[in-house]
Amino acid sequence: MVKLVVAGATGLVGSKILETIDRKGIPFDELVLFSSKRSAGQEIEFQGQTYTVQELTEAATDGDFDYVLMSAGGETSKRFAPLFEQHGAIIIDNSSQWRMTEDVDLVVPEVNAPKFTRGIIANPNCSTIQSVVPLKPLQDKYGLKRVAYTTYQAVSGSGMQGKKDLADGAHGAEPKAYPHPIYNNVLPHIDVFLDNGYTKEEQKMIDETRKILNEPTLNVTATCVRVPVQDSHSVHINVTLDQPATVEEIQALFDADPRVVLVDNPANNEYPLAIHSTGRDEVFVGRIRKDDSLDNTFHLWVTSDNLLKGAALNAVQVLEQVLELKGE
Ligand SMILES: NC(=O)c1ccc[n+]([C@@H]2O[C@H](COP(=O)([O-])OP(=O)(O)OC[C@H]3O[C@@H](n4cnc5c(N)ncnc54)[C@H](OP(=O)(O)O)[C@@H]3O)[C@@H](O)[C@H]2O)c1
Questions:
Q1: Alpha helices of the chain — where are they, by DSSP H?
Q2: Which of 137, 200, 289, 306 could make an S-S bridge to 310, C-beta 3.0–4.6 Å?
């Protein structure tokens, strides 16, 4: 008897989690949906049944749950994930709250697996997930010396309000999710600024890349940018390898690797695009070029749907991985 919870079921990521659970045929006997007080009572149709969304409270965490998929913000995860954990559940959390906690696993199933030191497993940052998927085969074959990211992140990465700010901004409305208009603009600012001048989003990419790839001293840097695109993040990766390689070898490596889709035919204007990634599960990689300004260095252009591989799909894949590891 598997009791499954989706907490944050009324949000952008939560609704994609439900779609993905359905699409992948994840087995469960009972499903419970939580939101905040705001949406409690809302009815959600799922697999031919009507579910009434319940308010997430401390008492509600004691429901004999097995698996909890949380996408309800950092503060909610901070408060409720340990309570679900105390009551014996495994929590797969989409917020950034637990990602860098030492005994919490940070998992991208194509790259690593949970060790189950704790009941909480963290789903990484969206841009980090789609970046480590192509970095992993490079790490295994050539070794990594340095990674420099520049991201072009869609407004759906800021939840419902981000999408609303882009749509309403076209009619002159003031933004609510951002300090400046996102419509017709580009913001070199995602999440709060830290004392080192980086944003928290940039620091997350740096720290999480090291943790997932299990290379605590890897040289990583990042610049994270919000662009007026509805869905799918694009990431430019400048990667320096330990060993020499050619563009053709890297293309062949990606072409043979089921974890990524190679789209790299510039002569035909074919390269990964945000609009082609939206609604797709895959991580797309292309524009592979040698960076002649540094030894063993290459440029990659990587796109993926931030709500799917960057959030909901990765969380459901972690659940599948957990079910398999636990033999369920
Ligand atoms: N969007 C992305 O691309 C993305 C990617 C990776 C990770 N994430 C993370 O996933 C989480 C959700 O993001 P989102 O984009 O889905 O945001 P969203 O569309 O704003 O949805 C937020 C969800 O959390 C619920 N919630 C808020 N406060 C709550 C509380 N106190 N108790 C219970 N539920 C509460 C909301 O319920 P109500 O309907 O009642 O407000 C709603 O269901 C965030 O932690 C975000 O950082 C998002």
A1: 12-23, 74-86, 126-142, 159-169, 200-212, 247-255, 274-277, 313-325
A2: 306
